[in-house]
Design a protein that fits this description.
Number of strands: 19
Number of helices: 14
Strand order of the largest sheet: 6-5-4-1-7-8
Strand content: 15-25%
Shape: globular
Structural class: alpha+beta
Mean pLDDT: 95
Radius of gyration: 25 Å
Helix content: 25-40%
Low-confidence stretches: none
């Protein structure tokens, strides 16, 4: 539990720097799917980041004052409910095992909080996340205000605790990196499994089933997000979900899938031919996307801006679009003109990456958290954030070609994306998802030999 204790201490230090106060961080609620059936429970990422505690109905309270204090509110022991729902730690065992100064039954939250808030200075809490806790906080504050005649002072303000935690979560420690590497390895194995089994006549959902099997068989707790398995023209739909479309001879298959391992996500995309052999037009566009990804990976290193990878990928993609006739140089000009006009967005409409961590679209500012100097501002906005060791980003360029009269027919309905997970290191980056091939020859070899 040491990493979680260290993170709590770091947050308490930041709270002290703000003048002290009380942080209130609830976990996620259980959600009903339909009658008598819940969705599979998944704890809140912020709460888990500081506690390692996975049970529902729990709240973390941190007191930054003359003496710091960490308090967990959780479900009490209930042997009858444990027969139905499984083991519960209970407050006493949870306090000892997870390293809290104190723990109480969650039913005592309304009783204990009014005693913690007087003279607290600031409440570190994220408004708008939970109507239930927003309302309870108002009740607790009203109780403190009613004590004003006895010399008690209510907290003067509310500070969004997630603003502090976002910056902490952006830089991964060794335990987080190990979990993300494992998630990357399991997810890569799942993509390889899908490639090996792929053949014309299968359905998209059958490939999805193979992926999910590999996730769970290797210990992943769940998919990190809804898997995209898109055959043929479906690959041109960015957020397509695996359906019942049949893989046809000559189709490409785009799979965007990653597992969650110990609360950390992988996010990998591969595109491969259903029959194991790229056609000429497919290979032409695929090589452009792969070259764009290589350029973006090269730009993913300390001291480079978050957007540098995207800019590098866009340049390669745009030049490729001009070379293949997807873009008409007579209409859009040279590569610089086409980029300036945004002409590439017709075939590449998303950004090349995002933060990755406990959430697949992880937290953290993409622009500098502090106001940039005038000379560093970009078009009146804050400058893009500089990459630092410990950050993890996805690198995912693509090309998506829908049929149109001014588009070469040989490229119609080709959708390609190649995505890997890159850990920024002191001297560059390390690809956490490199156990699944991305080169044309390697993909074809894997599919040929099974």
């Amino acid at each position: 539990m040491k990493p979680y204790s260290i993170r709590r201490d770091r947050l308490l230090a930041q709270m002290q720097a703000q003048g002290g106060g009380v942080a209130i961080i609830p976990t996620a609620p259980e959600v009903m799917r339909n009658r008598d059936a819940d969705y599979p429970y998944r704890h809140d990422s912020y709460f888990y980041y500081l506690t390692g505690f996975t049970e529902p109905e729990a709240v973390l309270v941190l007191v930054a004052g003359k003496q710091n204090k960490t308090i967990l509110f959780c479900r009490d022991k209930n042997l009858e409910r444990e027969i139905w729902d499984g083991f519960r730690y209970g407050p006493a065992v949870a306090a000892e095992k997870f390293g809290f100064d104190a723990a109480f039954p969650v039913e005592q939250l309304d009783q204990e909080m009014p005693a913690l808030l007087p003279d607290a200075g600031t409440i570190f809490y994220t408004l708008g996340q939970s109507e239930q806790y927003d309302a309870r906080l108002q009740t607790w504050l009203q109780g403190v205000r009613m004590q004003s005649r006895s010399g008690v002072e209510a907290p003067a303000g509310i500070y969004d605790v997630q603003r502090l935690l976002d910056q902490m979560r952006l830089i991964k420690d060794g335990d987080e990196i190990a979990a993300m590497q494992r998630a990357g390895d399991i997810s890569a194995a799942a993509h390889c499994r899908a490639m090996r089994i792929s053949r014309p006549g299968l359905r998209e959902y059958q490939l999805e089933a193979e992926i999910l099997h590999e996730f769970r068989y290797n210990g992943a707790q769940a998919p990190a997000y809804g898997s995209i398995v898109a055959a043929g023209a479906n690959a041109c739909v960015l957020h397509y979900r695996a359906g019942d479309a049949e893989l046809r001879d000559g189709d490409l298959v785009l799979i965007d899938a990653g597992c969650e391992f110990d609360s950390y996500a992988a996010d990998i995309t591969r595109t491969f031919p259903a029959n194991g052999k790229f056609s000429g037009p497919q290979k032409t566009l695929y090589e452009i996307v792969l070259a764009a990804q290589s350029a973006a990976i090269e730009a993913t290193r300390p001291g480079r801006r978050f957007m540098d990878g995207h800019d590098a990928a866009v340049r390669v993609l745009t030049q490729g679009m001009l070379d293949t006739g997807l873009l008409d140089a007579g209409q859009v000009g040279n590569v610089d003109d086409a980029i300036a006009a945004g002409a590439f967005r017709r075939f590449y409409m998303h950004r090349t990456g995002h933060w990755l961590g406990m959430d697949v679209h992880d937290v953290g500012d993409y622009r500098d958290a502090v106001q940039a100097k005038d000379k560093d501002k970009e078009n009146g906005e804050r400058a893009w954030r500089m990459l630092e060791p410990g950050m993890v980003v996805t690198v995912e360029p693509g090309i998506y070609v829908r049929p149109a009269a001014d588009v070469p027919e040989q490229f119609w309905n080709i959708g390609i994306r190649i995505e890997d997970d890159a850990l920024v290191t002191p001297d560059g980056c390390r690809i956490l998802s490199n156990a699944v091939p991305s080169k044309v020859a390697d993909i074809e070899a894997l599919m040929r030999h099974g």
